[in-house]
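Journal club side-thread
Mid-discussion, someone asked how the predicted structure for our own chain would compare to the paper's figures. Pasting it here so we can look after the session.
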Amino acid sequence: MPKDQPNILLVTADQWRGDCLSSVGHPVVQTPHVDALAAQAVLFRRHFAGAAPCSPARASIYTGLYQMNHRVCRNGSPLDARFETLAQAARRAGYDPTLFGYTDVSLDPRTMDASDPHLTSYEGVLPGFTVGQLLLEDDRQWLSWLKTKRGGARPDRYVHLTGLVRPVRPNQEPPAYSADETPTAFLTEAFLNWREEQTRPWFAHISYLRPHPPFCVPEPYNRMFAPEAVPKPARHATLEAEMAVHPLARLFLEQLPQSAFVYGAQGRVVEWSETDIATIRATYYGMMAEVDAQFGRIVEALKHSGDWDRTIIIFTSDHAEMMGDHWMFGKGGAYDGSYHIPLVIRDPACAEQAGRVVDHFTSAADVMPTLLQRIGVTPANHQDGASLQPFLQGEVPQNWRDHAFWEFDFRDVVTNAPEQALGLKSNQCNMSVLRDHQFKYVHFAGLPPLLFDLAADPDEMNNLAEDPAYLAVRLRYAEKLLALRAEHLDQTLAYTELSEKGPISKPHL
C-alpha cells in the first residue's frame, strides 16, 4: 500500500432522515458537529437510499448495486457471494477494513455448511470486514460493556424502559443509562481505542445503531427539544383517508406495532395521539443530537492525532424514518420520508471545495464507486452507482442522472402474510420508484401505481395515477423507469466477449 493512501472513515447513523440536519435548514434539529464537517466538506442535499429496510439498504451501499441486481429483498435475504463488496475491494488496495457495529448482511448459504450458525441470523458481517467491535440489535455486546463499566450484575434490555406508566406511553423521561453509556458511546470508544493502535493507513466503518428505535435517549438529550416546537407530520386528516391512498398503505397502517418503536409499548402505531407523535419526534431529534456529540469526539481525536488531514470521512445513513408522516413510523413503502438520507463527504485532497452543496440526485449505490475510484481500485463486477469524485472536485459529471431511483420489496417468504393479505405471489410484492424534481412515479408489480406532482404537492398527498389528465405523464415516467431498469440489468459479463484473442472486455464504453 502506498504510504500516501488516505485513511477512510465510513459512518452510518441508522434511520437518519435527510432533512434532519441544521445545515440543510431544519427548523429544530441541532447537529453542530455534522454541520461543522459539512462546512469543510461537500454536502449532498438530494441523496437517497437504494432500498429499505436495513439489509437491502446496506447492500446497495456495500456493493454499488441497485436491489434489482444485488437481490437482497428483505432482512434475511442472502447477499450473493459472487458480488464483490466494498470491504473486499478495499483489501485489494491494501486496507484491512474494520467494522464497529453491524452490517446486517445475510451470508450466501451456498458457500457455507448447513450447520453453520451464521445461517440462523440476518445480522452477519459483510465479507471483507475484520470485526473491531460487534453490536447487534439485541444489544448484548453493549450490555456486557455496561456491566464492565458499572460493575455488578449484567443489565438487560429493560434499561430502555422510560417513565413510570406501563405499558409505556411516549415520554421524555431518560432510560436507565447516561450519556456516556449509550450504544453510540460504546462504539465511539471502541473505535477511538482501535485508531490509536494503527500504524498504517486504515479503513474503519462505524455503523451506529441510533437514531434507530427504541426511541429513548438519556439526559441532556431527552428534553433538548420541546414536543410543542417540533414540526407536525405531513399526513391526511384522517386515518381512513390515508389508508384509501393505496392497498400497501392500508396493510402497513393496519399492522405497525408500537413496540417496534418504543420499548414496553403496546398497541398499534395509529393509536398514538398527536401529542404522542410530537413527543417521539422530539425524542428522535434528541437521539440525533446524541449521535452528533459522539461524532464530535471522533473529529476532535482525528484532529488531535494528526489524522484529520489524511482521512476521508463519509457521514450517511442506510435509510430514513417516516416519523409520523402519512400516519406511519419506520421505513418502507414509497414516500420520501423513508429514503431521503444525509450524505457528507470530506476528502482532504479536495479542500478547496469546502462548503460546497450539491443539489443533483445521488444514490447510496454511489458510495462504493466513489471510494474505489479514490483509492485506485477497479470494481470486480459492474456498478449501478457512479463515482461522486467529480462533485468532490468541483465539477458536474456529464450526463449525470436527473432522478432518484429506489426499490422496496414487501414479500415475506416465511409467513407469506403480505402475499395473502394482498392476493399476490411473492415475486409480485415489489415496487420501483422514479422521482425527479417534478413528479414521482411508483410502479408495482402486482398493485396499482402511484403518481405525485411533487412541484405542486411536495408532501405526496394526492395520487394522480388514475387522473385522465395525467395519463401521458404516467406513461412517460413508466417508459423512463423501464429504460432505467433495462440499462441497469446485471452487466458483469455483458461487456465481455470471447474472441480469437481471448476474452475482450470494455466495461467503460
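Post-session note: The chain has a mean pLDDT of 97.
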